């Protein structure tokens, strides 16, 4: 897998993920919407860790500043 995410993109995803988890565990969001947010938070965290977003590849998009061949 080629990296297709910049550091800024990764940090933004981790912040959004933390907010989603916080909303769930404080009880602000619950039920089905809460579970969906937890799943999205997990996906955001995973893609941030591996620096690869499958949707970016599908649409030919990359925020990574380094051009990889």
State the main characteristics.
3 helices, 69 residues, elongated, mainly alpha, single chain
Average pLDDT over all residues: 90
Mind describing the biggest β-sheet? none
Shape summary: elongated
Please tally the β strands and state the result.
0
What structural class results from the helix and strand content? mainly alpha
| Helix-strand topology string | HHH
Oligomer: single chain
Number of helices: 3
- Our measurement of the CA-to-CA distance between the termini, rounded to an integer number of angstroms, reads 11 Å
Description:
There is one protein chain. With 69 residues, the protein is mainly α. It has one domain. 65% of the residues lie in helices and 0% in strands. The chain contains 3 helices and no strands. It has helices spanning 7-25, 31-50, 54-59. Helix 1 (7-25) runs antiparallel to helix 2. The protein is elongated. The N and C termini lie close together (11 Å). The model has no long low-confidence stretch (mean pLDDT 90).
């Amino acid at each position: 897998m080629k990296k297709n995410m910049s550091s800024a993109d990764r940090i933004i995803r981790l912040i959004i993920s933390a907010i989603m988890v916080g909303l769930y565990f404080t009880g602000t969001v619950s039920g089905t919407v809460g579970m969906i947010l937890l799943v999205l938070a997990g996906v955001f965290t995973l893609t941030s860790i591996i620096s690869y977003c499958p949707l970016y590849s599908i649409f030919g998009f990359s925020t990574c500043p380094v051009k990889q061949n």
